[in-house]
Amino acid sequence: MKYVDEFRDAELARGLVAEIRRTVTRPWTIMEVCGGQTHTILRYGLDELLPAEVTLAHGPGCPVCVTPIELIDQAITLALQPQITLCSFGDMLRVPGSAHNLFAARAAGADVRVVYSPLDALDLARREPARQVVFFAVGFETTAPTTAMAVWRAAQLQVPNFSVLMAHVRVPPAMEAILSSPDNRVQGFLAAGHVCTVMGLDEYLPLVRRFRVPIVVTGFEPIDLLHGVAMCIRQLEDGRADLENQYARSVRVEGNVDAQQLMHEMFAAVDRRWRGLDTLAQSALVLRERYAVYDAARRFALPQQAVTEPSECHAGEVLRGLLKPPGCPAFGTRCTPERPLGAPMVSTEGTCAAYFRAGRQPEAIR
Amino acid sequence: MSGTTIRLHCPLPSDDGSVVLLGHGSGGRMTADLIRRIFLPALSNPALDRLNDNAELRASGVRLVFTTDAFVVSPLRFPGGDLGSIAVNGTINDLAVSGAHPLGLSAAFILEEGFPLDELRTLVDSMQRAARGAGVDIVTADTKVVERGKADGVFITTSGVGLVPDGVDLDPTRAQPGDAILVSGPIGDHGIAVLSAREGLRFDTTVVSDCAALHTLVAAMLASGGAIRCLRDPTRGGVATALNELAGSSRVEMLIDEPAIPVRNGVRAACEMLGLDPLYVACEGRLVGVVAAADAERVLAAMHAHPLGSEAHRIGTVYGQAAPRVLLRTTLGTTRILDVLSGAQLPRIC
Questions:
Q1: pLDDT tens across B126-135, in order?
Q2: Which residues constitute the domain of residue B273?
């Protein structure tokens, strides 16, 4: 299949691994930001192909994983209202809130539907005017433009029974938080290619300059990732810290300007607590005041309530690249995809789930 | 509506596995858990405890196999089949994987009040076409009607009885180190065909369901004279789940070669788009088989000569009697464990 097979080619992979081996002279820790990249690494065992000097730390780029537990509780609460239909991407349904997940809400009679686009939720609202349709808007800058488009269209068409529960977050503040942390070990980043397809490269330059850290915008296929690692190692060994674009077949320097303009029209950035991380400045997107009528949290006057995470879950350390899942005492025993303690064990892009699905054993029995 | 205050109070029972969730029907780990916790403790007996696709019953020296299956596919019609054809072929295939020749089928219909009779007639005609094509009759049936809203149009349950020829033994415990692992054709066609027709997801594809009755293919494989150890039809949970079940029953380790697994481009493209792995997508007219390595070519030749096995392929080897598991050698030459599905495959976000 064109544009896929050539990026999974064994010969190319061997060549890139050989190049990395030739280049590397000492230990380096590189973080791939996006959960989709983590999944590819585990699915193809890329970490096992790399020389021992290269450590891949898995980043916080799984939107499902970093959505705060309070927001999941709010989504469940909304779903359980008899007049509300809650629409969500499928990944969110199994993520545990403080006591339940959306699957359990559905089993209890809540009207929860899986959609593939927020525009599908808007269409549903227009088809069923008697119901309040709420879209649970989760995702990074990749999916945020589609939410912006849905709200924009709802405003154009004056759809009164559509709203969104905003949980969109931005990648750069998370990278900044990781680099600012006193226990940071990350020396280079593979940035999330699809996020940059939308946002372009500019917002990563300040990180490169301030922290003198190489950032390579990288794709999602095995060859992309090995190529990204090779580029990043080359920079580290040369003592350079540049912003480079491995994923040039998708990412333009300026990004998708139309999408950026629409997001700017609809959204403002605010501070937000991330699940497993702290409150990150300017890290979340909310609807601007003139579109606030489409904000489900306001329409239904949802209270804000702080909730504590299960203490046994080490998701925070996993999301900051400090702990690999098999090193967690609960991994694969008290925490499995069927009964997750934390979100990274749920989503297909979650680091813990990626390790579990690839059959990696807990360290205790390895 | 606006201004109504909602309290963050959850009337749900705590999420401790006390109610049925959709994932319990996925055919993966949650289904196995349900069987272990609820059904086996209550119903345990030697035939059921084997957890095969069918149960063998012996009477007066005759070996019969008996199976039952409920069909709730949505939508009712999809490219290449419908609920009627799948209800007939699915049950025949559960008999066929033990080498049995189907003797007769039953059908039970749960109909929702208001379901159009024309649609019901279409489904029943489709059942008859599938049954006639397979050379078996639906010899007994039952009908129940439930109030509107208590079912999704129509659910069909079929059962089947088959006769196992003398000398044939395809018990799933028989895989041995060294054996070859075969698949009868490209995988995942059925699941992708159904998804392409599903409301809210429709996409254009040339993929049609592989829905078909496999007993004549199995008969052709047996007639080749090759030593066939065991067979399974990879329905819910796909090839990955079927192989894990066989590895578990035989207590062997399997190594599957990812580049050797036949997957149509349309299926691959749809899986890439939806974030699914074809190895977990359902087939309704394919089988995976374990055969003695020395006979693999002979059995493959017999499969290639049959219309339902023309694209059969060897995909792996049974290579150890360690802890039962399935390993996948990826296109890059690395190896990872191919696990059973936990819960339902969920479409990804980005």
A1: 999 999 999 9
A2: 180-337
